[in-house]
Design goal:
The complex is a heterodimer of chains A (about 425) and B (about 350). Chain A has about 425 residues and is mostly helical. Helix content of chain A is about 60%, strand content about 0%. Among the domains of chain A are: about 5-45, no CATH class; about 130-180, no CATH class; about 215-420, Orthogonal Bundle (MetI-like fold), CATH 1.10.3720. A 3-stranded antiparallel β-sheet of chain A has the order 2-1-3. In chain A, strand 1 and strand 2 (about 135-140) form a beta hairpin. In chain A, helix 6 packs across helix 17. The longest helix of chain A has about 40 residues, at about 330-365. Chain B is mainly α and about 350 residues long. Chain B has 2 domains: about 30-100, no CATH class; about 110-335, Orthogonal Bundle (MetI-like fold). Chain B contains 15 helices and no strands. The chains are: A mainly alpha (about 425), B mainly alpha (about 350). At the A-B interface, helix 1, helix 3, helix 10, helix 11 and helix 15 of A face helix 1, helix 6, helix 7, helix 8 and helix 9 of B.
């Protein structure tokens, strides 16, 4: 690896890929009754079944048996008494298995909930009043309209009114005027120069940074940015990588050969260097940064898809589809892709982890999203420059990093659960 | 087999040329390079020396540079030639070991890069050795105790370690322990040379611990899981059953029969050691302010010190390409079933 290799900037999800590659090389029977293997390792026959490599292709999805308890029950129901309800589709069974894995399932619920809420952050964490009632008129400053301080009797404030002081002011004076503030009345971009680098307090939950911005507000907004970034990045990488890899595998021959060489060369380009050089000039926004990372990240996906399509296209069902007159894209996307999807899904959460760490890393180096975007990496960078040993200004570093750790942990738990449900690895031990 | 690797080695040349060309073009075509910086410097000097005057028409408010000086400066930076010619010139010089002068350090680039080698090799080697010394036994133990409490707990820790980027863990450790217990980064203390020998050793170790943890944490998880899965897979194989059937002890079956085969994927990783040793990390080195190859590359990009950028790139690419081939050779040497064609 080059000197950027340890930086994990380009999401390459090493761990999942390793396993995918490993399994992809194994050619095993199509449906291994894994449930038996899972239940006992006592007899040689069972051990033999258990030894058989995991199938990752599901040519006959409906007869495949999962190692999960609920799935087993279901199959017994379905096969035991004739005329009972038909067996659940493989996908539904997997979802059911995923739900039974509590840690991953709850992580999924919590993360989805937090992410959904984070879109409503301007209504929850903001310095502008939600509703303001002044001299008989009602205003909604948080929804975009600008009001100078003078409009509400804050003499001398030509800029945006300070709704927090208005709130207290109206409360004290009583009367007909009132303000409804958001839950947490600080804006992530708001510089409070009277409170630079303040430790956590009642007013600023997690303190303020070196330009007086509220750390808690920035942390929350940073969550939304990070997840959105990772989601868009991973989706684009997967789409591009899958299509390119499938095309290479399907058409083979010269196209495949030249593309492979090209990818080899492309992967040698030290992506982090190039991204930094480009973003030093461009001052990238969300889209430019995503495109840059996709540009250097998509190749990682192609290897798996290429091999997978290569194998699949030799199978009878593809021949049948061809003889029925299916087009190339129909065969690739409707017939082959669904059979190769499992490892892609199972590695998705880990790619998200890669995406989040890539953004945080780039922001930390100062080449990520343009300031003043709330980003965890930029916050850490500010924290480390203001750190001089012995816990000084600890909140500046620990708050954004804790937020990142917790997020990554949730995503990893989800990933573990999905892998367990979609791509279970069953080991047997002989004793 | 020999032909295969010969071809691989020959393929390095086109790969190297294309890769460096791409980066070269990007560097040359982006504004803010050494030429523009030099221009700006002259402009600033002119502005500071002469009177700025009222409402200077040119942008930046500096003075106009005479066209001839501009031409000479462009010639100095070879900007009067088209990009491909410039690239070939650079390539020719590079092949003769001349990487040019660093603009920021005013030294030959090669010397600047080589002076960073000891730091990067030091951390690379220690991290590499430590992770193998810890991960292999840990993976074996986890495989033997599969699904035990220890396995589950350590798996969780390993998983958390995997999801946390090393530099971020380093930053947390730095804030938690920096100052009182550990130094705040740097490779050594200032004035290290003047210390007595054992103080030197202690100082070095003191400065090493946190960065090495940050360097190791990512590969740690991958290696442990790889070792565990590899051994588990082998323990389910036919030959292991045969070994048990002929009455061997469990100990012997695991350590003499299964372990040797399951070390194959681990051993191939040794091929990547070249890359590991010459790899500095932008992020870890910036976190701990360690002046290795990573920080050099980072600073050279920030300062637009393009000769150094290209120099670090050449080393990075060469190490990566030869490292890949070396890994495959090792792979073939260890596992006779592998056939490269």
């Amino acid at each position: 690896m080059d000197h950027t290799s340890k930086d994990n900037i380009i999401p390459r999800d090493d761990l999942p890929r390793e396993e995918i590659k490993e399994k992809g090389e194994q050619v095993g029977p199509l449906d291994v009754p894994q449930e038996e293997a899972h239940e006992s390792h006592a007899t040689p026959a069972d051990a033999m079944l258990a030894r058989a490599p995991l199938p990752i292709r599901h040519t006959v999805p409906d007869t495949e048996v999962e190692a999960s308890q609920p799935a087993q029950k279901n199959i017994r129901e379905a096969t035991g008494d004739a005329g009972a309800k038909p067996p659940l589709s493989i996908f539904k069974r997997r979802v059911r298995k995923f739900k039974s894995l509590k840690r991953g399932y709850w992580s999924f619920i919590i993360l989805t909930f937090l992410y959904a809420i984070s879109f409503a952050l301007p209504l929850l964490i903001n310095s502008k009043a939600l509703i303001l009632h002044y001299n008989g008129t009602t205003y909604f400053p948080a929804f975009g309209t600008f009001h100078s301080g003078q409009e509400f009797g804050q003499t001398g404030i030509k800029a945006e009114a300070n709704y927090r002081t208005l709130h207290d002011q109206f409360k004290q004076s009583g009367g007909d005027n009132w303000v409804v503030m958001p839950l947490y009345p600080w804006d992530p971009y708001e510089n409070d120069y009277n409170a630079v680098i303040q430790p956590p307090s009642e007013q600023h939950l997690f303190g303020t940074d070196d330009t007086g911005r509220d750390v808690f507000a920035r942390m929350c907004y940073g969550f939304n940015v990070s997840i959105s970034f990772a989601l868009v990045l991973t989706l684009l990488t997967y789409v591009l990588g899958t299509v390119a890899g499938a095309a290479m595998g399907y058409y083979g021959g010269k196209i495949d050969l030249y593309f492979q060489r090209l990818i080899e060369i492309w992967e040698t380009i030290p992506a982090l260097n190039v991204i930094i050089i480009v973003s030093a000039i461009l001052v990238p926004n969300f889209l430019i940064l995503v495109s840059l990372l996709v540009l250097f990240g998509w190749t990682a996906m192609t290897a798996y898809m290429r091999g997978e399509v290569y194998r699949e296209k030799a199978k009878d069902y593809v021949a049948a589809a061809i003889s029925l007159g299916a087009t190339d894209s129909q065969i690739i996307f409707k017939h082959i892709l669904p059979n190769s999807l499992t490892p892609l899904i199972a590695s998705f959460p880990f790619a998200i982890v890669g995406g989040i760490t890539a953004l945080v890393g780039l922001d930390f180096l100062g080449f990520g999203l343009a300031p003043p975007t709330s980003s965890w990496g930029q916050m850490v960078s500010v924290g480390l420059t203001n750190f001089s040993g012995d816990f000084s200004n600890w909140w500046l570093v620990l708050v954004p990093l804790s937020a990142m750790f917790l997020t990554l942990l949730l995503v990893t738990f989800i990933g573990e659960g999905i892998r367990e449900a979609f791509d279970p690895k069953v080991f047997s031990r002989l004793r | 087999m020999f032909n295969y690797f010969l071809r691989r080695f020959l393929l390095i040349i086109p790969t190297f040329v294309i890769t460096t060309f791409v980066v070269f073009v990007i560097l040359q075509e982006t504004p803010g390079g050494p030429f523009e910086q030099e221009m700006l410097k002259i402009q600033m000097k002119g502005a500071a020396g002469g009177d700025v005057g009222a409402g200077g028409g040119s942008k930046g408010g500096g003075v106009e540079i005479p066209e001839q000086a501009k031409q000479e400066l462009m010639k100095y930076f070879d900007l009067d030639k088209p990009v491909p010619v410039r690239y070939i010139l650079w390539l020719g010089k590079m092949a003769r070991g001349d990487f040019g002068q660093s603009y920021t350090y005013s030294e030959p680039v090669l010397g600047v890069i080589i002076s960073r080698f000891p730091v990067s090799i030091y951390f690379g080697l220690i991290g590499f050795l430590l992770s193998y010394i810890i991960c292999v036994p840990l993976g074996i133990y986890k495989a033997i105790k599969h699904n035990s409490a220890f396995d589950l707990v350590s798996s969780t820790i390993v998983f958390i370690g995997y999801s946390i980027p090393g530099w971020a863990l380093g930053a947390v450790l730095l804030v938690l322990f920096g100052g009182k217990y550990f130094p705040l980064g740097e490779f050594r203390s200032a004035g290290w040379e003047d210390l007595p020998f054992w103080d030197q050793v202690w100082d070095q170790i003191h400065h090493t611990i946190l960065p090495v943890i940050a360097y190791m944490v990512g590969g740690f998880a991958t290696l442990t899981v790889l070792m565990k899965n590899s051994l588990l897979e082998n323990l389910g194989q036919d030959y292991v059953r045969t070994a048990f059937a002929k009455g061997l002890t469990e100990r012997r079956v695991i350590f003499v029969h299964a372990l040797r085969n399951s070390l194959i994927p681990i051993a191939t990783g040794l091929g990547g050691f070249l890359g590991l040793i010459f790899a500095g990390s932008f992020l870890v080195e910036k976190t701990f302010n360690i002046d290795g190859l990573g920080l050099l590359g980072y600073r050279s990009i920030i300062n637009r010190d393009y000769t150094v950028v290209m120099g670090t790139l050449v080393f990075g690419i060469l190490v990566q390409l030869t490292g890949n081939i070396f890994r495959d050779i090792l792979y073939a040497a260890i596992d006779p079933r592998i056939q490269f064609k």
